[in-house]
Design brief:
This protein has helices at residues 52-62, 92-99, 137-147, 152-157, 181-194, 212-221, 234-243, and strands at residues 5-13, 20-28, 31-37, 40-47, 72-80, 83-90, 105-106, 161-167, 172-178, 202-206, 225-228, 246-252, 255-258. The chain is of the alpha/beta class. The protein has a six-stranded mixed beta sheet, sandwiched between helices. Strands 5-6-3-4-7 form a five-stranded mixed beta sheet.
Length: 272
Amino acid sequence: MTPGVREVTASTLSFASHEVKETHRALAVETPLELVFGTIPYAVMMVTPDDLEDFVTGFAMTEGVIERASDIRAIKIETHPKGLRALIDLVPEKLSAHLSRKRAMTGRTSCGVCGIEDLASLPSTKQSVQQNAALSDQAIKRAIDSLTSHQPLNDTTRAVHAAAWFNADGSFVLAREDVGRHNALDKTIGALMRSHTDAHAGFMLITSRASYEMIEKTARFGASTLVAISAPTSLAVERAEALGITLYAIARADGAMKFTGLEPHFSEETPL
């Protein structure tokens, strides 16, 4: 088993027969990870302890601490009595810029903006993304159909989210899993950054809802299309529209809803 899975003993109760049987169950591991830039603690996030270098890289980029993977000189993961600690060595100019900023955050698995001090501090990407050619229906369906085969941790535990990157034709590139939906996306973004993948070469597919933070992270990476298995929030649609992201959601094997990047429609009375 990977570090992200732990087997426990449980009792299974049958409501029909009232029998109780001992069974074994694989659980997704959730552990605190403290992120330390230089010598300054920055955040504590609840994560699945797999692909942590990818997570650190993606998290640092979507938080605005770095712009590229090479801004990190080294990542050291060490154990702590209460969890794990990531010691992140930034290049001097990024460390200096980071120290001029301030943010203290305790991250929960469901929260993407915990710890900010006021509304002005909400993460907000300024620049619209570069639009790619429209995806075909077949590419989106191909990605959705293949996603479950790239979720081994969820197949074992039924308790984690995934984010996956596909080429424009729907062919699979990579996926990462985590108990937190934001973490899964950060891990995938980090893995793509570390492998020097072009953000314009494909699209992101997530197993969760499309919320404000998921749009912001996608935009900061530079991808122009996000496909979500669950529904979007209203603010996610607004931000996707503002940032030029094409957003598909409620994506299923038989279809998906397109919320942004819509072609204009004209009534019979509207002059062309």
